[in-house]
Each structure stands twice: as structure tokens, then as C-alpha cells.
Design goal:
Helices cover about 70% and strands about 0% of the residues. It is mainly α. It folds into two domains: about 90 residues; about 120 residues, Four Helix Bundle (Hemerythrin (Met), subunit A) (Up-down Bundle).
Length: about 220
């Protein structure tokens, strides 16, 4: 289902390029001062924002980058060392070794939500179960979209998210996968709004299995 986070890898390359420019300007100055604090601060902020997407904020990449790129504890900024940390993150991420911890945590949360949906379905509350199934799918799609750098707004509900994740920009879902998820979205919409709900227990149980598989791929596959 997933084709890797090409957007994050490209963004890492862009930030490495900017870091190299910052480093060259810093060395050319020769006096140990940053000549353009505004662009330097923008670079540092963008790097930390991206590194936060690779793992939890306490990960080594974030800690090491902050250690060298920000002043604190009487230490001076070392742009070269900070750039080295960023390059290391790029290599580790491209090899699939940078653990997307926040995605794994989200997967556990949504798996719990699906367990609750299964309980409701088995008790005969299939409409309520379908609502929870759709909620788990929507939130997992949002989490995956944010992990590849897509900006998510209030209008990005289940169906718009599927469209965005199958786009050329994201390439997370192929056409077949998107069509199946769109069918699941229709079930959720029918369940969430008043009116007829023409699904039986077996159909809701099948939807549950499919959403479990989708969440597994979206949030646990590197």
C-alpha cells in the first residue's frame, strides 16, 4: 500500500542544502557570528519540525540537532555539527531505520478503537460499530497524511483524505485501494447520519477486518 515517504526524503534533501549554505556563510564570515539570524532561525525551526515527524520529540536526532543548533548551557552554536546530524537522519530514514514511533503509537490507539467496534458489533449494535470503524479509518488516514507532510484542514474528512492520499502528490493509495476505502467511507456515512442503514452483521464485520488491515499498512509499515 505504501510507497515510502518521498516527500519527507525530498524535504530532508532541501533542508540539507539550506544547511550547507548556512554553514558556508558562517565559515566565510570568519568571526563566529551568524550573519542572517532570520534565515538561520527559519532553517532550525523547519528542521526540528521535520525531525519531529520521524519519531518522538525525545529521539536522538532531535536531541543532537538541538544540542548543536541552539544556544544553551553556555555552549555555542555549531552549524557544521548540526548539519551532520541532519545528514545522518537522512541516511537512516532512507534506509528505513528511523522508527516512526508516533505512527506505531497511533496504530495501537486505533486498534483499541476497533476492538471496541468489534465488541459493539457482536452485541448487535452494528450501526454504532460502523461509526467507530469509520472514525478509526479517518484518523489513521489523517495521521499518515501528516506523516508525509500534507497539511490537514477541517474539510479533510474521510472521502477527501482518500482522494488526497491517492493523488500524485502523496501516492500512498493506489486506485484499487482507494475504491475499497471509499466503499467503507459510504458505510460510515450511512451509519453516522439518520436514515436507513442497510448493512448486516457480516458486512460490518468484513469492514472491520478490512480497516484493521488498512490501519496496519498505513501506520505500521515503514
Amino acid at each position: 500500500m505504501l510507497r515510502g515517504n518521498a516527500l519527507i526524503q525530498q524535504r530532508l534533501d532541501d533542508l540539507i542544502g539550506e544547511g550547507e549554505r548556512q554553514w558556508e556563510r558562517y565559515k566565510a564570515g570568519g568571526d563566529g557570528t551568524i550573519k542572517d539570524p532570520s534565515s538561520f532561525a527559519q532553517w532550525v525551526t523547519s528542521v526540528l519540525n521535520l525531525l519531529d515527524k520521524l519519531s518522538v520529540s525525545s529521539n536522538r536526532f532531535v536531541n543532537e540537532f538541538e544540542r548543536w543548533a541552539t544556544r544553551g548551557d553556555g555552549k555555542e552554536i555549531n552549524i557544521g555539527a548540526a548539519l551532520g546530524v541532519l545528514k545522518s537522519a537522512r541516511v537512516e530514514y532512507s534506509l528505513g531505520l528511523a522508527v516512526e514511533y508516533h505512527l506505531s503509537v497511533s496504530a495501537a490507539v486505533f486498534d483499541g478503537l476497533l476492538d471496541e467496534a468489534e465488541y459493539l458489533a457482536n452485541k448487535g449494535y452494528i450501526r454504532a460499530a460502523a461509526v467507530l470503524i469509520g472514525a478509526a479509518l479517518e484518523e489513521s488516514l489523517k495521521t499518515r497524511a501528516q506523516a508525509i507532510g500534507l497539511e490537514i484542514g477541517p474539510k479533510d474528512t474521510l472521502t477527501p483524505l482518500i482522494t488526497r492520499l491517492k493523488s500524485q502528490e502523496a501516492q500512498v493509495l493506489n486506485e484499487f485501494e482507494a475504491k475499497r476505502l471509499e466503499a467503507l467511507a459510504r458505510m460510515r456515512n450511512d451509519a453516522a447520519h439518520s436514515g436507513e442503514f442497510n448493512y448486516n452483521h457480516d458486512q460490518v464485520s468484513q469492514a472491520l477486518r478490512e480497516v484493521r488491515a488498512a490501519v496496519e499498512q498505513l501506520l505500521k509499515q515503514r
